[in-house]
Every structure is written in C-alpha cells, then in structure tokens.
Known about the structure:
mainly beta, disordered N terminus, single chain
Amino acid sequence: MCRTPRFTVVALLLASLLGSCQSPPEPLPAGAGLLAADLEAPSGAEVFDRPVWSAGDWYDFRRGGRIRLRYLVQDGPLGQELLDPDSGRTLAFDADFAQLGERPAGTDAWAVQLDPLDPTFSWPIWPGKRWSGSFTRRGADGIELPLMVHYECDAIEEIRVPAGTFRALRIWRRSSPALEGEFIDRVSIAWYAPEVGYLVQRVDEGIKTQLEAYHRQ
C-alpha cells in the first residue's frame, strides 16, 4: 500500500483551507453600451434607416469557403434572434440590432453575454458616420473581458457575393480591451446591404463569410 508523506497531507489540508476561505472575485461591471455617435448626416448624404425583420426570414452564409451557416429569424424575449438550427445556438439582438450575446436555443442561459450590448449598428447610418461603445464580454466559463469598440461606415460600394450583387455600406470595427496597458487592436470589416436587411459579407481575422442565399417575408 502506498502512503502519502505526512508533510504532503498537511500541505494539501492547508491549501484546501485557504481555498475555502477565499471568496469568488466580484464580477466586472457592465459597459456603457452605446457611448457616442454622430447625430446628423452631412447635407446630401444618403441615409439608411433600421431594417425590419420578420419571423420566418432566413439567411444562408458560407464561412471560409467551407462552413455553412443558416440563420432563421425568430422572436425572442429581448428582441429578435437568429437561430442556427444546425448548431442550436441563438444570436440575440435588441430592437436596434445591437448584439446581446449567444445562448443555446430554448434556454435563458447565456453561452456568451455582451453586457449590456455591442452597438453593432447605430441608426440611421450614412457614409462617414462613426460611433463607439463599451461592454463586458461574459463567458459561460466565467471568463470576463471589458471591451471598447469603435465603428465607422466609410463608403457605399457594390459588392458581389454568391447571393447576388448588392449596394452595401462598408463598416469597419475596431476593438480593444478596456484595461490598463497596451493592446493590439482587432479589426474587422462588414458590408451591410439595405436590400437584404443584414450583412452580406464580413472579413474577420482573415476569414471571409459571404451570403449565399436569403429570404425575406
């Protein structure tokens, strides 16, 4: 029979006692949501209002040329949601299509919560509009990260994707941790097509996601 040395047992007991005395860390506070946004479009600018989704709309995407993503629009407790029937995950939005987070379908538990929200859009939008926000990303694993995000719509351009050719607003997103210290910004680009009512293309960390087909009521 193998015996554990006495000093090892004592060390384990001390570690257990110290661990039981430590209280869990306080959760990070929520961010501010939308912090600032340009309020008035310049004279002559083409302005686009918030789209309208209907339950039953759907969007099919292809990520990285291989991964198929299908999103079905449905009504959720906090606003409208996009359900991916293949993975069972749900992307939740508020009334202005700001991202609230992700959760498994049919549950109220968050897999990822963006507290209070990531202001993905700020309506109305026009070329040249800028807006910014902050939120705390909370994962189901307990990891929390405060983030600052900056958005800018810098152009309207014609973009061709498998679903067709669309006039789209090009929107840049820059994010960084809202912490002391120096961090590398993470940048992504998205193209929002008013005709579609959603993104038709996104490039994030070098991976391109494109709209392949869609249906609106």
